[in-house]
Design a protein that fits this description.
Shape of chain A: globular
Distance between the termini of chain A: 40 Å
Order of helices and strands of chain A: HEEEHEEEHHHHEEEEHHHH
Radius of gyration of chain A: 20 Å
Number of domains of chain A: 2
Oligomer: homodimer
CATH class of the largest domain in chain A: Alpha Beta
Helix content of chain A: 40-55%
Number of helices of chain A: 10
CATH architecture of the largest domain in chain A: Alpha-Beta Complex
Number of strands of chain A: 10
Chain lengths: 321, 321
């Protein structure tokens, strides 16, 4: 949940003067997204999302994120389409922050995804990877293996407050992942944060992908690994093999995984789990009481790290090559 | 800001089965309202607000609130219109809470209302009072003069923490208001919470009134007094006489105030300021750190109480009888 910045109707009207969307009818701060402030805007021409980029987003990255949404949308991937100002610009300023307007996507995210939703996700992810293949911009992943130790160094000292022994366990895993992180696997545009709240459905059909603000150029199979973590574990941290099979085999039906990618999958899944454990741990230790942000439990991802350590090969996830 | 209760697409779809609003397309928790959880719902037939009533709302009051909206809407007052279930019921249940669906009103609330907005408000308030005259249900005001002392008793001991001397000052004011609260003034349906965030505009025109969850049967002029407090003071607590003139004279052009009502206005305004000071004070002292609710400053209303104490008659507010 977030609306960090409120805006007045006067400043919004001023901002919208540069756009051809017709009369402004209403705007509501919405309780989605944790990094930015989002407003659902109704105008005479339709519904839009206005995003104000808060301090965690580097403004220099916005052309990549918005350009990617435009590119994917042009290729038939359903995602928010940036609305251009009359000048052609996609980024404006509002309340002292960079702001962008994108089309509103109908659809709902699944609080309790089913096997069918995981199958749709696998197919949608593969289609996104293919559509991104000729996107000309690049952005390095700021939260991949080389970023984990600096992050860990800022949390390690207090890790055992969260769970006794956490420090030593993470240290060993991190060293192992740094030593063995795969090289030479196919790279391309990845979403990097494709959790259920970023995937919309209408009925059983995937209706769109949103929130590309972690998107970057990185190992494609790493995106698959992140989805395994985010979609295929139940609330009790048990791994749902049926969901994983659905996700992986729908993916490979559209973009086959090479044997090298398949072989790397357990390590990538372990790394992805560590990445989310680390950012959650850091937020857990550093979010002040009284903040509007709901803190997510780092231990959920510790459990996932442990699960992936027990996996010897990707066929244990249900992958059929 | 509030979304206290999140709901899943599954429970929402189940809830909506009783309504004829067409396919559910999306729903977003919105950051408006402080008492309930509100969702902006898009369906094939249009946009709606779904409200889940949290613990501060007594479910027995819902037929009054929803019936009033229906009544006012039928009389041409623009306000949310409750959507009936196929059975005719206006109240359902969702996530273990009473829930209701109302039509979505386009429009924006004014973070910085102008004189023109105050004029529109005055006229809109008077029209609402007239339209409510034949509403058959009654509800007592749970936050009028007889409720203030019990509320004060739960905050008095710690009042001086907020401002030294506050205890004695409120005690004196409260005793005076209890002794002199007017009797025999015209009563009817009042909104009782018509702050700027409950009044929508499109351009300079009032486009609707929302949030009738404090509405009750009480002194009509008390509603006018509350609007004076909520709309005619600037951020620095100075009283804007031009705004008050616009508000009062637009009101009386549609519903004239009797001389008894005019005479009572300074006392009613002082009482209304005390009422909001008391609830804010109580919340200030009792809202836990870390709550998602933004606490409002009780001292803003202390300043207003002091201002009204200095007023001898309603013509000092700019009222022309």
């Amino acid at each position: 949940m977030a609306v960090y910045t409120d805006i007045s109707e006067v400043e919004l009207a001023e901002f919208l003067k540069d756009y051809d969307i017709g009369e402004l009818l209403s705007y509501k701060g919405i309780a989605e997204g944790v990094e930015n402030s989002n407003f659902l805007v109704h105008a005479a021409s339709g519904a839009y999302i206005l995003t104000l980029y808060e301090k965690r987003v580097n403004p220099n990255d916005l052309p990549f994120f918005l350009g990617l949404m435009q590119h994917l949308s042009d290729k038939g991937i359903r995602c928010p389409l940036p609305v251009k100002q009359r000048s052609g610009a996609m980024i404006g300023e509002l309340a002292g922050r960079p702001g962008a307007l994108v089309t509103f996507l109908e659809g709902m995210w699944m609080r309790r995804p089913t096997v069918e939703h995981c199958r749709e996700l696998g197919a949608g992810l593969a289609a996104m990877h293919l559509a991104g293949a000729d996107f000309p911009m690049r952005r390095r992943n700021g939260l991949t293996v080389d970023a984990w130790r600096p992050l860990w160094n800022r949390a390690a000292e207090r890790a055992d407050e969260v769970e006794p022994g956490l420090g030593a366990e993470v240290e060993a895993d991190l060293a192992d992942l740094e030593a063995h992180w795969p090289k030479g696997l196919p790279v391309g545009v990845i979403h990097a944060d494709l959790f259920p709240d970023n995937v919309f459905f209408l009925g059983k059909r995937l209706s769109g992908l949103i929130d590309f603000y972690f998107a970057c150029t990185d190992i494609l199979a790493y995106d698959v690994a992140t989805c395994l973590n985010a979609w295929c574990f139940e609330k009790d941290n048990s791994f749902n093999l049926t969901k994983a099979m659905a996700l992986l085999n729908a993916y490979t039906a559209i973009r086959p995984l090479s044997s090298a990618e398949a072989e790397a999958l357990p390590l990538l899944a372990r790394g992805s789990a560590l990445r989310f454990m680390l950012t959650r741990l850091y937020d857990w230790l550093n979010t002040p009481e009284g903040s509007l942000v709901v803190k997510k439990d780092p231990l959920e991802y510790l459990r996932k790290m442990r699960f992936h350590r027990s996996i010897k090969s990707a066929d244990e996830y249900g992958l059929k090559l």
